[in-house]
Design goal:
The chain has 22 helices and no strands. It has one domain: MFS general substrate transporter like domains (Growth Hormone, Chain: A). The chain is mainly alpha-helical.
Length: 481
């Protein structure tokens, strides 16, 4: 789309059709992901207790996250379809209620077989991501999507810190079962909080993207003066997104190359992330001889760095996006992934906590710097009416990344079998898998050629599919998040 074809970007033209929802829905959505990620970290605190109680090895324990992910793939299919066809707020609230019930069952397990089955139940409910990501994209402006995704994902980091530190204390005081029991009250509170949020209309934020960019670049003056406008879309829409068949949906997805580059890149990169979520605490216990609470506290350095990374990645990507660098989200993901590998390998290779601790902090920031831009990029290139099912496809492919814990567990078992200690076996296993994060960054670079045109298509389709609203009173200026 050229500057000449953009309507005047003066104050009247910049009156958005999309409502302003403020901070509260974002806090509610962040709380849902805080529950999921926090419980995974408290599970890491319970690993040693589970292994001793049920007499299992590292390789067996490492299959738990992977099995959960495989079941989550099954759950993601109906969740994705429902996220595109029903109200997403009650869908998400209901999923949190079921998740809370599964927490109680995990804590009551009397055998590893039962614990394994109950973990699979948790995996099914954690497939609610399609609804959450779809809601974030429709609550907040597309030009601010990366930082909105970063703020949403920061809930995962807050939950992870609670899981690491609080889970360590809970396990130390009450045993491994309290790694699950501690989440029951929070789950019920979040479900009620989520249910009170409004349901946004699909696609309005995408339809306003180019006018937003023009208004940001020119201070609300003529769009013809704006240096940051999207290129013309390379194709036109041919399907009705409400009534289309599943085959039509898949054909549509195959026409979005950026989506596949992004999915593949993040899948490869997150093999390391999912592995560290499970094994970081056991690593600090074994290599640096720390107790449960202390291991959780030191592993929290990764979490503190991650807070800076997940928030900073979104703000950096959006800042340059609004300044005319349309591939900013692509480049932040790619270059941060490569840099993370260079820092994390020596961090985990070192046996000195004095050396490892600061590297962990920096590495945590670099590991999560790509998260928010990657989530935003994925939403940018898929029309609003299909984002739930697109997230299902992404979940199916990205489920492979949950093999990270199993891979590290298998490598550790092999190193131990070769004569290394339990500490060195786990240390070498983590170092060996670190380079895979950089590979994901290299893959993401291929998306730079296709991303602008795919975004332009979504904007054009959102305008075509969104009905014109009735005249409304001008809302207050957008101030965040």
């Amino acid at each position: 789309m050229t500057a000449a074809s953009v309507p005047d970007a003066g104050p009247s033209a910049l009156l958005r059709r999309a409502a302003r929802y403020g901070w509260v829905p974002l806090i509610a959505l962040a709380a849902t992901v805080a529950l999921e990620q926090g419980e995974r970290q408290s599970l890491a605190q319970a690993v040693d207790g589970i292994e001793k109680r049920f007499h299992i090895s590292d390789s067996v324990a490492g299959t738990i996250p992977f099995a959960m992910a495989m079941v989550a793939v099954v759950g993601a299919i109906p969740f994705g379809v429902l996220a595109d066809r029903v109200r997403r707020v009650p869908l998400l609230a209901g999923a949190v209620v079921v998740w809370t019930a599964c927490m109680a069952l995990n804590g009551l397990a009397t055998s590893f077989a039962l614990l394994f089955v109950y973990r699979l139940g948790v995996g099914v409910v954690e497939a609610n991501g399609p609804a959450a990501v779809s809601l974030v994209a429709d609550y907040y402006p597309a030009k601010d999507r990366a930082r909105s995704m970063g703020l949403y994902q920061s809930g995962a980091l807050a939950g992870a810190l609670i899981g690491l530190v609080g889970g360590g204390v809970a396990v130390s005081l009450g045993g491994w079962r309290w790694a699950f029991f501690m989440w029951i009250p929070a789950g019920l509170a979040v479900a009620v909080f989520m249910l009170r949020q409004p349901e946004p209309r699909r696609g309005d934020q995408d339809a306003d993207l180019e006018a937003d960019l023009a208004g940001f670049a020119t201070g609300g003056l003529a769009a013809s003066a704006a240096p940051t406008l999207l290129p013309p879309p390379r194709r036109t829409g041919t399907i009705d997104y409400v009534t289309c068949s599943h085959r039509d949906v898949m054909r549509e997805f195959l026409r979005i190359p950026t989506m596949w580059f992004g999915v593949l890149a993040i899948t490869v990169a997150q093999i390391l992330l999912t592995g560290l979520q499970f094994w970081a605490v056991p690593y600090f216990k074994r290599v640096h001889h720390l107790g449960a609470a202390a291991a959780g506290g030191v592993a929290g350095l990764l979490g503190l760095g991650s807070v800076l990374g997940i928030l900073g990645g979104g703000f950096i990507a959006d800042r340059y996006f609004r300044r005319g660098h349309l591939n900013a989200r692509v480049y932040v993901v790619a270059f941060a992934s490569i840099a993370a590998t260079a820092v994390m390998m020596p961090a985990f290779a070192s046996t000195s906590l004095t050396v490892a601790a600061p590297l962990m902090f920096v590495g945590g920031a670099l590991l999560t710097l790509p998260v928010a831009p990657a989530e935003a990029l994925f939403s940018d290139v898929v029309v609003a009416q299909l984002r739930g099912r697109a997230a299902t496809v992404r979940s199916i492919v990205r489920a492979l990344s949950n093999g990270g814990a199993a891979i590290i567990g298998l490598l550790s078992a092999q190193f131990i079998a070769s004569g290394l200690s339990r500490a060195d076996g786990l240390r070498y296993a983590i170092v060996a898998i670190c380079p895979i994060y950089a590979i994901g960054g290299v893959i993401m670079l291929f998306a730079a050629r296709t991303y602008p045109a795919d975004v332009a298509f979504v904007v054009a389709e959102s305008r075509r599919c969104s009905p014109e609203p009735a005249t409304v009173e001008a809302p207050p200026p957008w101030t965040g998040p």
